[in-house]
Task: inverse folding
């Protein structure tokens, strides 16, 4: 029988974000400005296929309905298609999503879909190729755009795009983004820039509240939609003249944590109760054999009783999160 994971604040957890690598080939200014450096926080190998199979099976037994594969850049794993297929073995997991920088989309998206991927988020911070290059350190704008087209061609009816909202970088470009999604079923989600251990200076310079965009959308006749229980934290807005939607992810807004429905497992098998949490609870030793599942379930459920009511970002406390490539944003 499935027992639903619940914490001390009666929040239920339907959604697992699973990081499968820390490696990334981009150098986004707000994440890995100097590029990925092996050995950092985690000088260990990343979860292998059997460990991924076991961890997702256990979360499925605990009521997880949705798994997001993230990183680093998850698609840099050579066995990425096999990872999707391994998660797919769990019938209870109805949604398998990936968050990707889009680098491998054009080449591989059809095969990911065949393996069982149901949803795609692509990170695109600018629709200007030169600015995209400046932000990511990679001259790959056209390749990423071709990847989004390929996702539609492969049969995805909708694609989500993540855009980190940055004052004086892209916050004046709302019209450009809206024109782009007008004919396309893209949910474009502006994410407020979050402060990380390594990104304090950038944060002070470029953080902007998503409320600025929300006011503008409402003024222009956009309508807020309701969310369902395994949805992410985005406030989603639609407009009758647009095929696309706008999402706002505002971790600095009051009560953001009240609707938290997700847990995170890092690429080395640590359970993190919050993106901006503590050192994590080691699960890996219980991922070595199928017979350990009951012990693993107990460890996860036990850890959840320590989940705090909210993050402490407002106090400038970023926990251990030096950058988001470690536990995948
Ligand atoms: N490499 C993949 C990608 O970029 O989509 C997946 C991992 S990335 C860490 C996941 C998401 O976190 C991306 O959409 C990225 O834009 C976002 N992100 C990274 N650092 C951030 C920060 N400091 N503030 C807000 N969002 C951030
Ligand atoms: Fe890589 Fe994603 Fe971080 Fe950009 S946001 S550096 S693509 S992990």
Result:
């Amino acid at each position: 029988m499935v027992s639903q994971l619940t914490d001390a604040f009666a929040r239920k957890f339907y959604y697992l974000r699973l990081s499968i690598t820390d490696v990334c080939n981009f150098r986004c200014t707000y994440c890995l400005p100097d590029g990925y450096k092996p050995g950092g926080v985690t000088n260990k190998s990343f979860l292998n296929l059997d460990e991924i199979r076991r961890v997702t099976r256990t979360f499925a037994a605990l009521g997880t309905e949705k798994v997001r594969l993230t990183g680093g850049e998850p698609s840099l794993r050579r066995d990425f298609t096999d990872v999707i297929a391994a998660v797919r073995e769990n019938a209870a997991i109805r949604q398998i999503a990936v968050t990707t920088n889009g680098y491998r989309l054009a080449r591989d998206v059809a095969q990911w879909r065949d393996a069982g991927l149901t949803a795609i988020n692509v990170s695109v911070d600018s629709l200007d190729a030169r600015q995209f290059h400046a932000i990511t350190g990679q001259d790959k704008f056209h390749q990423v755009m071709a990847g989004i087209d390929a996702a539609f061609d492969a049969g995805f009816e909708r694609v989500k795009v993540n855009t980190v909202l940055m004052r004086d970088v892209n916050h004046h470009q709302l019209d450009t983004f809206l024109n782009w999604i007008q004919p396309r079923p893209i949910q474009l989600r502006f994410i407020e820039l979050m402060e990380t251990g390594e990104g304090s200076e950038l944060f002070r310079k470029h953080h902007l509240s998503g409320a600025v965009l929300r006011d503008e959308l409402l003024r222009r006749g956009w309508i807020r939609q309701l969310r369902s229980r395994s949805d992410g934290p985005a406030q989603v807005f639609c407009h009758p003249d647009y095929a696309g939607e706008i999402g706002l992810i505002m971790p600095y807004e009051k009560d953001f944590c009240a609707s938290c429905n997700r847990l995170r497992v890092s690429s080395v098998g640590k359970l993190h109760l919050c993106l901006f949490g503590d050192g994590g609870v080691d699960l890996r030793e219980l991922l070595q054999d199928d017979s350990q599942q009951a012990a693993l379930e107990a460890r996860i459920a036990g850890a959840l009783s320590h989940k705090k009511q909210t993050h402490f970002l407002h106090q400038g406390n970023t926990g251990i999160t030096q950058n988001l490539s470690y536990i995948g944003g």
Remarks:
- Residues 15-315 form a domain with the TIM Barrel fold (CATH 3.20.20.70).
- The CA atoms of residues 51 and 287 lie 5 Å apart.
- The radius of gyration is 19 Å.
